[in-house]
TrEMBL record:
<dbReference type="GO" id="GO:0042626">
    <property type="term" value="F:ATPase-coupled transmembrane transporter activity"/>
</dbReference>
<dbReference type="Pfam" id="PF00005">
    <property type="entry name" value="ABC_tran"/>
</dbReference>
<dbReference type="InterPro" id="IPR015856">
    <property type="entry name" value="ABC_transpr_CbiO/EcfA_su"/>
</dbReference>
<dbReference type="InterPro" id="IPR003593">
    <property type="entry name" value="AAA+_ATPase"/>
</dbReference>
<keyword id="KW-1003">Cell membrane</keyword>
<dbReference type="GO" id="GO:0016887">
    <property type="term" value="F:ATP hydrolysis activity"/>
</dbReference>
<feature type="domain" description="ABC transporter">
    <location>
        <begin position="7"/>
        <end position="245"/>
    </location>
</feature>
<keyword id="KW-1278">Translocase</keyword>
<protein>
    <submittedName>
        <fullName>ABC superfamily ATP binding cassette transporter, ABC protein</fullName>
    </submittedName>
</protein>
<dbReference type="InterPro" id="IPR003439">
    <property type="entry name" value="ABC_transporter-like_ATP-bd"/>
</dbReference>
<keyword id="KW-0813">Transport</keyword>
<keyword id="KW-0472">Membrane</keyword>
<dbReference type="GO" id="GO:0043190">
    <property type="term" value="C:ATP-binding cassette (ABC) transporter complex"/>
</dbReference>
<keyword id="KW-0547">Nucleotide-binding</keyword>
<comment type="similarity">
    <text>Belongs to the ABC transporter superfamily.</text>
</comment>
<dbReference type="GO" id="GO:0005524">
    <property type="term" value="F:ATP binding"/>
</dbReference>
<dbReference type="InterPro" id="IPR027417">
    <property type="entry name" value="P-loop_NTPase"/>
</dbReference>
Length: 278
């Protein structure tokens, strides 16, 4: 595989200052760029820490002892952070804290970074409208950011990042405050993002199984599984106290297996199990 189309984590460990135990422990894997990668795990398993390393926040902004390699295509956050930053978009867990606080309107907030980066007003305006439409904010462009709901604020934070059209998008629990319809729209949009490499931490395991190319599962700072959702969920289903997708649980309850012997994890796979036996 061309090294420029590879995601490489090699022996990645992170220990926060003053902590004895590492928050991430010797994580190694490779994957192809251009995929949607869902990062799951229980609370304190290291998901946010992994996002913060992938985004370069650790160690460039938040200090921590980091060892090992992180490479997204030709870029590494440990080598030329400004260049890395230019190619990556980041949506933090605390989305409200990521807004500038300086904009009177949603439009201005999305335009803020673009204009700061030297884009012309005309170009920026086109990018703002495109990103706002993708996040369903087109009717809210004149509204003040501090009047938005939690879910709308998350959409605004995402729109502000995708307005740059980054090659890599790293999102930490971006739908936690969205209502079910908003969440479904978001995951539908995500499923159509074929050009980008997307890392998304989410507790919405059902949605991730529908759209993700890969799942990475963390437990106590260790990577316990990675690969296609079907393989990964079947691998971690026993012996780990993890949330399992509804489809998997239903299939198991009704004894519906795929020809491979695995239980399905997404609706289309489950439907196939019923079709085969009718
Ligand atoms: N700034 C910090 N300083 C010290 N320890 C930290 C810091 N941030 C996180 N940790 C510790 O690192 C470990 C992993 O935390 P992290 O936030 O990455 O987990 P998580 O899987 O994202 O959890 P959650 O789902 O609850 O957000 C935890 O033990 C946590 O207490």
């Amino acid at each position: 595989m061309d090294a420029n189309q590879q995601i490489v984590l090699d022996n990645l460990s992170v220990r926060y200052r003053g902590e004895d135990e590492a928050a991430l422990k010797e994580i190694s894997l490779t994957a192809k760029t251009g995929q949607i990668i869902g990062i799951i795990g229980n609370s304190r398993s290291g998901k946010t820490t992994l996002c913060d390393v992938l985004s370069g926040i650790i160690p460039n902004i938040v200090s921590g002892h980091v060892s090992g390699t992180v490479r997204l295509g030709e870029f590494s956050p440990f080598e030329a952070f400004d260049e890395y930053n230019f190619h990556t978009g980041v949506v933090l867990q605390n989305t409200a804290g990521q807004l500038s606080g300086l904009s009177d309107t949603v439009f201005d907030e999305i335009a803020f970074g673009l204009i700061n980066q030297g884009m012309s007003e005309e170009e920026a305006s086109k990018s703002v409208v495109r990103a706002a439409c993708q996040m369903g904010l087109e009717d809210l462009l004149e509204q003040a950011p501090d009047t938005l709901s939690g879910g709308q604020t998350q959409r605004l934070a995402i729109a502000s990042e995708i307005a740059f059209d980054p090659e890599f998008l790293i999102m930490d629990d971006p739908t936690s405050q969205m209502d079910p319809v908003g969440r479904r729209e978001f995951f539908e949009w995500l499923a159509g993002c074929s050009e980008k490499t997307i890392f998304i931490v989410s507790n919405e395991v059902d949605d991730l199984c529908e759209i993700a190319d890969q799942l990475w599962v963390l437990e106590k700072g260790e990577l316990i599984a990675s690969g296609k959702p079907l393989d990964v969920i079947n691998q971690v289903a026993e012996g780990h106290d993890l949330y399992l997708p509804v489809v998997y649980r239903m299939a198991k309850e009704f004894g519906k297996k795929l020809p491979s012997g695995l239980f399905p994890v997404k609706l289309s796979e489950l439907k196939g199990c019923f079709d085969d036996q009718n």
